[in-house]
Amino acid sequence: METNAYNGFSIKIVRDFYGLNQSQFAKLLGVSQPVISKLEKGDKNLEENQIEKFKEYFEPSFFKRNVENVNQKLFYRKLSSITKTKLALFESRLNLLHNTISEALEIIDLDADGLPKINTDDFIKEKDNEFKIDFEYLATEIRLKFGIGRGPINNIVDLLESKGIIIHFFDYDFISSDNNKFDGVSFYVKGIPVILVNDKIPNSRKVFTIAHELGHLLLHFEDLISIDRDIEAEANNFAASFLAPEKDIKSSLRQLTLEKLKSLKLEWNMSISSLVYRAYSLGTISQQTLRFWMMKLAPIRKQEPLEFEIAKPTLLNKMFKLLESETENGFYKQLGFTEKLREELFGKENVPLRTKLKIVLN
């Protein structure tokens, strides 16, 4: 939505998008740092020549949009060790994505069941004199609600998108495939679950990341989370149980060899490393054997053999096509994003091709 006045938070979004602190931003605009503070508070307006500096990514109309500051707690939970600059770069893009999806959902409805509401108390069981979440039980219930039978999940992307979960593979220059802090994030927009996954990571890691973020969406958004709970470990435990239920895979995780693990990787759509950890968690290998396998796999962990293809998300693309139709090609225009920014945020496949004029020669 566009207003008559400049929106201070939209200016901060642009500054963070470029990875600049207030002093650096002030130097770029040829003003003092206190002026930047006033701009971001909405107490002062940008000049036209200043807006021109950002035309590669932002149309002038963007600076008058009602861009909301989305609570960062919705986005991620394990980035405390990331530099402030890289965090700002990432957070600005997440805010832009969140706001865009929010505006899209004002126009269209996703006709899907969504995720079931989970009360973790229903899945607490006593084990070793402690009361813990029974992830096998929880994952089985979710599989049943999703209509999945036993065995491997052949296409987790299509499965979750059929339930109305928006999945998007992002590709940002400042995030490498090695930085597992940025493997994936998840949040809700107007009650719709969204999972973002780093497109640079191997497909086997993508599958586990999607299941991991599904665990967060199910377990960690409704209630206040006790500081005693390790939510990353909980998401990992859910993902492992969801992708490879104990009753289906345990017998296969005995007497492991590399050839056997390669075969299981293709059957279960999980990385070799994940399968070894699954074997350890199910008690089919000892901690000493786990250490052996981690040492043995160290040379190939970043680039495992036998990577497989996975389906590309399509739900966001379908939403944008419908929006363009419903708004007579006006949805992208109202965003205030240039085509270059749309490609960075959503991927080329989610940006409609421009109609080319054809010269007809007699």
Automatic annotation (TrEMBL):
It comes from the Bacteria. Residues 11-63 form the HTH cro/C1-type domain. Pfam families: HTH_3, Peptidase_M78. Belongs to the short-chain fatty acyl-CoA assimilation regulator (ScfR) family. This is HTH cro/C1-type domain-containing protein.
